[in-house]
Amino acid sequence: MDNRFATAFVIACVLSLISTVYMAASIGTDFWYEYRSPVQENSSDLNKSTWDDFLGDEADEKTYNDALFRYNGTMGLWRRCITIPQNTHWYTPPERTESFDVVTKCMSFTLNEQFMEKYVDPGNHNSGIDLLRTYLWRCQFLLPFVSLGLMCFGALIGLCACICRSLYPTIATGILHLLAGLCTLGSVSCYVAGIELLHQKLVLPENVSGEFGWSFCLACISAPLQFMASALFIWAAHTNRKEYTLMKAYRVA
Q1: Which residues cross the membrane (predicted)?
Q2: Disulfide: which of 32, 158, 209, 229 matches 12 by Cβ 3.0-4.6 Å?
Q3: Contact at 8 Å (CB) between 59 and 107?
Q4: What is the mean pLDDT of residues 144-166?
Q5: 150 near 183, Cβ under 8 Å?
Q6: pLDDT given at position 253
């Protein structure tokens, strides 16, 4: 094997490993989107019913999003979290200080919630199904797992290529990484579109802002790494095969 192709193969493997780690971390963390609300909102008189509704099993889309807006919420593909004061005083609120202990309360999305229909008016079951938001949500949930699966399958093919001491099978690895990159890019695009459509339905309260978190950024970084790994795998396999064919023809001649 030519040193050029071996070097390209090693670089592609490193890029593939990094993108896999980034994608797995992105799927498993809860910071795809973060809301920032004023400190006064969290240190005011506590609304216990809002917390109970947020942590309840039957919280609808509007209920948990209202809590996310008010209590510095974060949201991932699997869980939603809010940050609230640790010590609650329901009858006589204590004097407010500049700092207070807070605790993060999280609630996982069930599989039913992941595939549940989204409504034109969030929380209103009589407003009709919003098909666009429904399928965007499902795609943003499923595509990262498809991407991760394709990369793992590509890694197995690459391992077989190493055992066989041949670069030609890595063309399949490159194609799988290309498909994985498209899935990751599609997931990121679906998530952005879904968030924008949600904020058109549920306008953020005054002095509340939202931004994409570091989990989302990891997914964004993973996609170009997958494309670069794909390009290197395909180039190394195709060029090596081409040179081998030319060399074989030259020897026959």
Answers
A1: 141-164, 176-200, 212-237
A2: 229
A3: yes
A4: 85
A5: yes
A6: 47
